[in-house]
Amino acid sequence: MIQMDGSHHDWFEGRGPKCVLMGYIDDATSEVFAWFYEYEGTMPAMDSFKRYVKKYGIPQMAYLDKHPTYKSLKKPTVEEQLKNEKALSQFERALKELGVNVKHAHSPQAKGRIERLFRTFQDRVIKEMRLAGVNTIEEGNKFLGGYLPKYNKRFGVEAEEKGDMHREVPDGLDLERILCKKTGRTVRNDNTVAHDKRLYQIEEYAGTKKKVVVEERTDGKIVIANSEKSLRYKEIKERPEKPVKRPAKTRVKRINRPREDHPWKKPSYERRIRKEALETVCC
């Protein structure tokens, strides 16, 4: 089991931007893995976990807190309720696909090992980086690459039971397709897909199904795929102008007035004639 969390701190003591250290500690051996990121969120969690897996293998269990990145706060959808499933965050979904059991701590004290590690690093690592002149996240990650092996060699312990419980990444398993954000989208009639206020034109047949999955990779790449393969697409930078509708022709309403000698009109006509005659006499 590994404990995982992010530590927000002024790691470069004002020489560089404040950032987050995504830290991992093995519960059996106390071996540590860490990487600096600009913020704590889904993409840093995905990227750091991918780096951990490539170095050590897939762990059996991950012990996390209830940060929205690690535990979904959404209510289950109707489909999830019918399947008796709970709503999962993107990170929980990725770990489930990798076969990693997820357990959430109910308090900071419950994951005390990773919290103590961060307190230690906020003292030791900060001083070491100050002496090494580390001022940026890139320099910090390069520093960790040389510092952590020495730290693990000095403070790591042997597990009570021999044998590494990490699983090797199976052949053919694409970590990039699992450790990414996945969002289901519907293909429109013009073979376009809208996602994150952008419009993408699919350039090949997407199959009979109208549903595709938009994958946001940790390197910033966007992949649109159906159940079978990734699809070729291009982003539409400018939306096509809608045809201007011509204003409808306004029909002039004709008023049919009866003739002066019409039976309905005759009384009022006669009154008007008498009135004009009186006015003429008076004048």
The total of helices stands at 7
Tell me which oligomeric state these chains represent.
single chain
CATH secondary-structure class of the largest domain: Alpha Beta
Estimate what percentage of residues fall within beta strands. 15-25%
Number of domains: 2
Query: The CATH topology of the largest domain, please?
Result: Nucleotidyltransferase, domain 5
- Overall pLDDT level: 87
Report the CATH architecture of the largest domain.
2-Layer Sandwich
- Overall geometry: elongated
Uncertain residue ranges: none
Rg over CA atoms: 36 Å
Spatially, the strands of the biggest sheet line up as: 3-2-1-4-5
For the largest beta-sheet, the strand count, sense and barrel status come to:
5 strands, mixed
CATH homologous superfamily descriptor of the largest domain = Ribonuclease H-like superfamily/Ribonuclease H
- Spell out the helices and strands N to C: EEEHEHHEHHHEEEEEEEH
Defining key terms:
single chain, 283 residues, alpha+beta, Nucleotidyltransferase, domain 5, 2 domains, five-stranded mixed sheet, four-stranded antiparallel sheet, 7 helices, 22% strand, elongated
What does this structure look like?
It is a single chain. The chain is an alpha+beta fold and 283 residues long. The protein has two domains: 154 residues, Ribonuclease H-like superfamily/Ribonuclease H (Nucleotidyltransferase, domain 5, 2-Layer Sandwich); 60 residues, no CATH class. 31% of the residues lie in helices and 22% in strands. The chain contains seven helices and twelve strands. The strands form three sheets. It has a five-stranded mixed β-sheet, sandwiched between helices. A four-stranded antiparallel β-sheet has the order 6-9-10-11, with no helix packed on it. The mean pLDDT is 87.
